[in-house]
Request: fold
Amino acid sequence: MPVVFFIMLRFRTLLYNSTFFLCCFLAFILLFESRIQIPAWLQVVGRMHPLLLHFPITLLVLYGLAVLFFPRPPSPNAKLPDWTDDVLLAGAFTATLTALMGILLSQEEGYEAEMIFWHKWTGVATAFLSFGWYSFRSALMAKVLPARLFSGVAVVLMLATGHLGGNLTHGESFLISPLLPANETESVALDEALVFAHVVQPILEEKCVSCHNTNKAKGELIMTTAELLQKGGKNGTPWDTTQADLGLLLRRVHLAPDDKKHMPPKGKTQLTAEEIQVLESWIRRGASFMSKVVEFPAQDPLFIFASNRLQSGGAAETFDFAAASDKTIRELTTNYRVITPLSANSPGLTVNFFNAASFKSSDLTELSPIKEQIVVLDASFMPLQDSDLATISQFSNLRKLVLNFTGITGKALNDLTKLSKLRELSLTGNTIQSTDIQKLKEISSLQRLYLWNTAISPEDFVKIRNEMKNVTFESGFRSDTVVLQLNPPLIETKEQIIKGESQIRLKHQIAGTVIRYTVDGTQPDSLSSLVYKNGIQIKENTRLIARAFKPGWYGSGSVERTYYRTTSKPDSVQLLTKPGQQYAGQAGKVLIDGVKSDRDFKNGKWVGFREEPLSAMFYFQKPISARQVSLSMLQNIGSSIFPPVRLEVWGGMEAGKLKLLGSKKLPIPAEKDPRNEDLLYEFSFTAQPLKYIKVIAVPLAKLPPWHSSKGEPGWVFMDEILIN
Amino acid sequence: MEKNIFEFGLNQNRRHFLSKLSLGLGSAALGSLLIPDLFKGGGDPDSQEMLNGLAHFAPKAKRIIYLFQNGAPSQLDLFDYKPTLNKMQGQDLPASIRGEQRLTGMTAGQATFPLAGSAFNFKQYGDGGAWISELLPNISRVANDICFIKTIHTEAINHDPALTFFQTGAQVGNRPSMGAWLSYGLGSENKNLPAYCVLLSRGKGNGQGVYSKLWTNGFLDSVHQGVQFSSGENPVLYLNDPDGMSQTERRKMLDKLAELNQSTYAEFGDPEINTKIQQYEMAFRMQTAVPEITDISKEPESTVKLYGPECLVPGTYAANVLLARKLSEKGVRFVQLYHQGWDSHGNLPNELRGQCQDVDQASAALITDLKQRGLLDETLVIWGGEFGRTNYCQGKLAPDNYGRDHHPRCFTIWMAGGGVKPGVYGETDEFGYNIVKDPVHVNDFHATILHLMGMDHEKLTYKHLGRRYRLTDVAGKVVNGIIA
Reply:
């Protein structure tokens, strides 16, 4: 007997200490709740919460009842029977453990914070209270009335916790639902929600039906069903859209709250301002019972009300399959096959393929561990075989499948009929025939089909649209009837000075376009002008004009560019006179650099003269044979750059014995002449050997009277000499 | 009884105390095992949350293409039809309408504010009856897919702060851009391309600059920075291996480089080093991914006709829109375009005509194209500028020529696809100066976009300098009225 007693004592101490430990643990967990992550094995412990909770309820209630109802023994030293202490200890222990498990369980997803709040804190309170109860039982239980009061509170708290917990598990009104009329409204997505059933009716049910139902039909009006509501009551139909106030219902709603006829009557829950707006908007738009919420404009109060109600963040589709493990998803994800959950809490997966070059059919078959979970699959541009569709058809929960430009033919499409949940299918860019589409009729869930760029003709579309009324077809943009103007060809050869036999290249980005060009300054046309092939060789300085043509398009606008031909480059140059200070052009070197400068005369690529005539000597180490010299010059009237009044080109084999090869006297431009342009002066002569060429250009001595700087000397600017 | 309590007190000895204490400590120690980062020191709960890169809830849109019309297109000449302005042409803007509005330095000194009606004709299009100007015939045709928000308003009155506000949620620089936030929150869909790409083009109208601070990662990790594509023939420069460098050699070199970087990382622990390693790896994969995308020669002719032949000329708006579609189709989370030239302070009718010619066909084509590929419902297209333009004329008002200054109080932005509800949202007064109904602040706009992408804008945070930052900072409401 003493041994048994000793063991009992040890056991009690152990149990008591364990309870204390668990209380501390519980307090700690509560303190750091937001940062806790529960490992899987602890989740299992947490999930035993619903099992264990029955113990503390029984034990604590038992002890409480003992305190409440045990007949008080006559002697002041008498105590409750011994077993009650053990009951309380066991109750405290299991209560604490249960609370702890409950916290662990609450960390899992799927519990609404608001609902769990009271259950959690009453549970925690019960745990701590029961521990305190046991620890201080002798003090607490010393007097009858406080003891009974305390026990009563504890039992009530216990029961409240249990009830709240029951609500969590079984639903809010589980306990009394058999007593309530059944009015389950299922949650519905905004896209499908009906105005009456999902927006208006819930308002009526909440605020009106308690007095206007089949049992209690005040004013003979029953608002429980659409038919009875339309019928109205003894005062007539509830609405009339021809009246300014929209009829009886709204008239009564809008009466002053103190008015006897105001609805809902004083003392009952009133309609909110938004709810009134909703009713108003619904009635104004004809009080339709079948129209959908989405048919209302976006800023309509009814639409806003509905979108706030029906779509709280994630009112998305819920799936009836379990999530795949993170590990599996990680293992199957590669750089070219990306698997992502639809959202953090969703078991549904999206699979995207990238990089056609690395795609293999096995990339699809490898997905079999997650074949249940794949909801969206996008394999656009991957080189699929028809046989791959059989693999895809095993992904039984697919909602959306995108197979754009995958090279599949329509032959294997009947494999897809196994996808009984498929809603969207995109087959854009594949050689699908309209007969292939017939096979898809079997998928009753199908809502949208994307068939742009397939082999289906517009006539066939009309036919299949009629045959499959439940499906929206996207046939996409057809270009055959659209005629646009082509863009002009691109000139690839930007450099304007063409050396010797080099070729000028043109291109157009649209395949099959014909480029036609002229070299005589006329506009190219689509019939007679030269056709560009692989490059254009020029024999002389040329103005090239090009346009693009293609059947089914209007011809393009034209592009043009002047090219200068040169065959020999002088080996050195010497300026014989002094150029303008900023326009020395590297002591004339720019004249033989083989680059045509743009018209920005300050860019250092030009030589400019004003005080003295331009005079430059060009040398060749070996004699060349030449028949033409061209000078590229500039006119910029605003900056006083005029054509030279006189040009001379001299040449010969010895510096002292030069012959005049050609000269020009040039007119002064009239006021209306173009202000800013490139000038080119050509001097042709009989072909002869040359070692020296000298060029003289005389600037205008006095600018004409119409010029803003009249009377001052003009400039001449030259950037290149070209020798053929 | 008292004796009991006394005895109880005597029993509480040191051993008792210590044994209880050890129990308490033990329980805390056990509990601490459940907190993975308790002893890691400075563990950032935000980055922990964000590592998943998952949407908070099921998203409506997966990707965004933002066609930013830089310089602020005139809503009064494109979408917000105000015949009153034509009737009152030349009369002064009533002071009661202007209120206390702060004006820019460009018109603050004007003695009068003559109302200027639009020189263009409007018609209603689509089921929503949206008014659209004759300058946008192609956009008019796809009006049924578009949600016009006529009541966007901002706080800034000058380009740079306004642009920065739209892009980063704050008027001063240094905050992460919208694309960077999305990259941070949702990660990259295609690991072979940046999550955030930027394309620039320029129209002939009066232009305003764009700067790389608009696509900055701010204080976020630099992997989230926008990658600007070049507007030349090669959108990504220096992507090809130089002559004589084979893929295997390149691979070897990158491996060695990564080793070196790893050892530096081990020494200094700078997270930017890790970023660099990742960027090199991505660039390597981009060598195969990018040519696949930028090669437009394989586009069917119907695509060229859809976007207009300019789409084949690199650097044009049309070419950028086509490229944006291709990038988006390949899983780029956020493609941001900027088209410059909308800042019509003067000569508005002419400049606007040119700008609309640049953008109308390609913008509409994008919607059609996404739709026919089954991508419109998961791609959000946004079109709009940084603010609106005034209803009064800047400078001299001529019958066929006028200009408009900056106007922050109301302007129109449109969106399509990605879970928005087509139609017209919001209403401005008959002068087009103030909002009458359903205002949408820039913060609300951001909150709504994040919502469409499956993100709660209040939960997408990053802790920096001791406080948590959001794209919407401390404001923003989701505009449910535009969500389908």
